[in-house]
Amino acid sequence: MCIGYRLLTTSDFTENIDPYQPIYNKLWKMQLLSYLLEFDVVHAKLPGRLIRIECWRPPEGSCLIVNFDATFHTSMMLSYARIVVTDNLGFVVGSKSVVNTHIPSTFAAEVLACYHVVQLGLNLGLQ
């Protein structure tokens, strides 16, 4: 018994391709060029100079910034809260991490995080 092999050519792969594919390719190229030309028109209308650069600056005066977030693990009914208090220069004034058990919902976890923020503020002597 003899098994024959045949060398495949590119025509073997292109026989079943859509006959309109070259037209689709040409249309796609035309749409792309049109889109790029629209960018050129917009670029030409833009002003040639930079108006102003906005950069973050710390608030002036003495103030504190409180950042906090809570996460909630549904199946274990646990919540985790992290609180960081910084001054206007970015130095950490205080921080706290809390793990709460038997928490029924995400809303309750966020409420507890807010409670811990207030508690930390009182402990730091803030009014």
Rg calc: 32 Å
**Secondary-structure element sequence?**
HHEEEH
- Outline the low-pLDDT stretches: none
Helix percentage = 25-40%
Distance between the termini: 96 Å
Shape: elongated
Helix count, DSSP H or I runs of 4 or more residues: 3
Class by helix and strand content?
Answer: alpha+beta
**Going across the major beta sheet, what is the strand order?**
1-2-3
How much beta, percentage-wise?
15-25%
**Count of individual beta strands:** 3
| Arithmetic mean pLDDT | 79
- Biggest sheet layout: 3 strands, antiparallel
Structural overview:
This protein has 127 residues and is α+β, with helices and mostly antiparallel strands. The chain has a domain at 64-123. Helix content is 38%, strand content 24%. The chain is built from three helices and three strands; from the N terminus they run H-H-E-E-E-H. It has helices at residues 10-14, 21-45, 106-123; strands spanning 64-73, 78-87, 92-101. The chain has a three-stranded antiparallel beta sheet with strand order 1-2-3, with helices on one face. The longest helix is centred in the N-terminal third of the chain and has 25 residues, at 21-45. It is elongated, with a radius of gyration of 32 Å. The model has no long low-confidence stretch (mean pLDDT 79).
